[in-house]
Amino acid sequence: QLVETLAWAQAWEALEGSYSGYLGDVQAVWNCAVAANQKAIESLPYLGLEIRCALIEASLHSLASKLSPTLLSALVQHKFWTPVQALSYAKQIPDAQQRALALMALAPHLPAGLLGEALAAARAIGYKERRAKALAALASRLPAKEEREQALREALTAAQAIGDAKAHAEALAELAPHLSRTLLKEALAAARAIAARTIADAKKRAEALKALAPHLSRSRTLLKEALTAAREIESEEWARAEALAGLAPHLPEGLLGEALAAARAIGYEEWRAEALEALAPHLTKLPRAQLYEIWAETLPILAQRRRRDLLVDLRALTPVIAALGGEKAVAEAARAIADVGRWWP
User: Fold this and answer.
1) Distance of CA 233 to the CA centre of its chain
2) Cβ atoms of residues 50 and 35 within 8 Å
3) Which of these, 111, 126, 246, lies nearest to 176 by C-alpha position?
4) Is the pTM for the entire model greater than 0.90?
5) Exposed/middle/buried for 317, CB within 10 Å: 0-12, 13-18, 19+?
6) DSSP state string for 223-287
7) pLDDT in tens, 151-166
8) Helix axes 96-106, 112-123, angle to 10 degrees
9) pLDDT tens for each residue of 120-160
10) Residue closest to 106 by CA, chosen among 119, 94, 96, 95
């Protein structure tokens, strides 16, 4: 009955600053009670003890759930708690998403000796998106390259298993800054492996490419592969346009021509305009005649939208207007704005 006494819980708390050791004792007693009950054929002599252990654990987990991730981090940062105490409480948080957030918040404050324990807690999180993010936050702190690469690979695997396109992209975006070139290549290969022949697949591939794009600039080869992956989106032109728009700011001059060709090949005007708008600010080194073609192709589509925010759209094309430098481009922009004004007073 020792584990049921308040004094024993307080002794553990005084010794290590948390109830982690006490919870371990409760779990050990609970396991013994379960084993004894399983051996008893006609009765359950320790059923009451099992229930009491469950209630003690639930009570302590409830205490942990009241500590926000921000507060846990602040307690360690300002030396009110040790990292051991904070990690112990983080591991006890019953809600998986909150537990992941707590581990992420503590990651910058954990010494190398506690990272293995924190990683084990992150690996036990069932929610793939949170598991991926928690693993990434902790892996970036690992001093050994092999361990770091392994943890990041696990995080990448969890991210790739996320079904929701937006959540998948968010997880990849958080992972990407920490990924080595090898893992970036694997992430890109996984994105390209998405068939992209249905609406859901096309959206997922486009979101994945957009998330990875800012971090692919380390390698022209990877950017070229990403551009190919965007062009291979067959069924949904809006997704192809979205992927091209996400890649546009990160493409080197040598690949902009390919991206431009892919954008101009989009059949539906609305999506073609979106891709051209994104590319336009990066095309100002093109020959003047070719630049004017893009301008002449994009402006009418923008005007046809008859939206109040046409001025915002035109702002994206300001570098093109400047590069053209002629009164003709400015006059056409003014006419387009005036035309929209007739529809939207």
Assistant:
1) 22
2) no
3) 246
4) no
5) buried
6) HHHHHHHHHT--S-HHHHHHHHHHHGGG--HHHHHHHHHHHHT-SSHHHHHHHHHHHGGG-TTS-
7) 888 888 888 888 787 8
8) 160
9) 888 888 888 888 888 888 888 888 788 888 888 888 888 88
10) 119
